[in-house]
Design brief:
Layout lengths: L1 H7 L3 H5 L13 E5 L11 E7 L2 E8 L7 H5 L7 H5 L7 H16 L5 H29 L4 H21 L8 E2 L2 E2 L7 H23 L3 H7 L7 H7 L3 H6 L6 H4 L5 H6 L13 H28 L18 E9 L2 E9 L7 E5 L1 H7 L1 H4 L5 H9 L5 H5 L1
Antiparallel strand pairs: 1-2, 2-3, 4-5, 6-7, 7-8
Helix pairs in contact: 5-6, 6-7, 6-14, 7-8, 8-14
């Protein structure tokens, strides 16, 4: 009697929303906002979740909280100044962001960069890749409740960071690329110090590997969770470590080589790491293995630079830099995936249009396909394994 009376007295809105799991008492879907300021989103990203109990029915990523209008600002800055803006959208991949812009401008101008600058760029791009991956290797276990790995990851980051800072003067925003080459040559003895940093990180990397990959709690939270099929990868234009963890064997460094990657691939130093499961564990293990590959590439670049005689690292350019009329698209294999710049010039000292294609935007776009029918706890594991930077989404 009491139960029947209580059910009959339910609010009409409560009854109409009923998609509950029990037949005797209807329930309503709950709309839950994760973010825009929330520990699970590691940034100002907002996820609007529709929940049936603890299970996700629908997910709507809401972006734009960090939008700074970089593409419009490109149009009112000259070709030297836009490097400052391009540097910042993915603040964990600053050197790689600069690289795409200068490659596009150099292609339009028909510039040939000195050999020494080509190999230094390759070396610095891989050091930047290691820094990027180490951040996620430390922060992802932290989001699942394991605090220790982040201390190991930051120890290795500081080792690499020290040589990057010595060279460029910057810890995050290096501003070391220039149209036609690099800002300046390396300090005396820097190659040896970079080599020592690579050896130290390689020697201590198993500390993170042993701490995380074999951990039964980490495996329980990640193995088989958040599977992403190759079909969804193709449909949403996902790239980088996330795509390769689903068995998509694609890497611009090998497939459309730039800088010194063609020679490194030919020598067998550049390996493309793939997995087949496409789950959270696979994405994490790809990232870890890619650090090892990048350290191999760093060592190969150091050897190559030691064999190159001293020479210029940049090309002399006019004080006012104007790019010939035309258009080009330059894409690079950034740490988080494909990063592309579509440059249109009308012969002025500023771009008429510079469109940015960032990896993180596509990585987040697939969440509405991945999250339905998962529980909220798994959502945190899935979101962290998508390896994104919010500035790279919002631009």
């Amino acid at each position: 009697m009491g139960i029947g009376a209580g059910a009959a007295g339910l609010d009409p809105l409560y009854e109409r929303g009923g998609t509950g799991t029990g037949s005797e008492l209807p329930t309503t879907d709950m709309v839950l906002n994760i973010g825009p300021q929330h520990p699970a989103t590691h940034g100002v990203l907002r996820l609007r979740l529709t929940l049936d109990g603890e299970r996700i029915v629908n997910c709507e990523p809401i972006i734009g909280y960090m939008h700074r209008g970089a593409e419009k600002l490109f149009e009112v800055r000259d070709y030297r100044q836009i490097l400052v803006l391009a540097n910042r959208h993915d603040w964990l991949s600053a050197f790689s962001n600069e690289l795409g812009v200068v490659l596009a401008v150099e292609r339009m101008m028909g510039l040939e960069v000195p050999v020494r600058a080509v190999w230094l760029r390759t070396l610095l791009a891989e050091l930047n890749r290691v820094l990027n991956h180490l951040m996620f290797l430390g922060s992802y276990p932290l989001e699942l409740g394991a605090i220790t790995p982040v201390f190991y990851a930051f120890r290795e980051r500081e080792t690499i960071q020290a040589v990057m800072e010595e060279l460029s003067g910057g810890r995050m925003h290096y501003m070391f690329n220039r149209v036609g080459g690099l800002k300046e040559d390396i300090p005396y003895g820097w190659l040896d110090r970079a080599g020592e940093a690579s050896v130290a990180v390689r020697r201590r990397l198993p500390d993170i590997e042993n701490l995380v990959l074999g951990n039964e709690i980490f495996r329980a939270r990640t193995v088989g969770v958040g599977r992403l099929s190759p079909e969804l990868i193709a449909a949403y234009g996902i790239s980088g470590p996330i795509a390769r963890a689903s068995g998509v064997d694609a890497d611009l460094r090998r497939d459309e080589p730039y800088l010194g990657y063609e020679e490194l691939a030919r020598d067998g130093v550049l390996r493309v790491v793939t997995r087949t499961d496409g789950d959270c564990f696979g994405r994490f293990s790809v990232l870890l293995e890619q650090v090892k590959v990048s350290l191999d590439l760093v060592d190969a670049c150091l050897d190559r630079l030691r064999s190159i005689p001293a020479g210029p690292v940049n090309t002399r350019l006019p004080k006012i830099l104007k790019v010939p009329e035309g258009q080009t698209y330059a894409w690079t294999e950034n740490p988080l995936g494909i990063n592309g710049y579509y440059l249109v010039s009308r012969g002025d000292k500023t771009p008429w249009r510079l469109k940015l294609r960032s990896a993180s935007f596509n990585n987040i776009s697939v969440l509405p396909e991945m999250l339905p029918d998962t529980i909220v706890a798994d959502m945190i594991a899935i979101l962290g394994s998508m390896f994104f930077v919010v500035g790279d989404i919002d631009k």
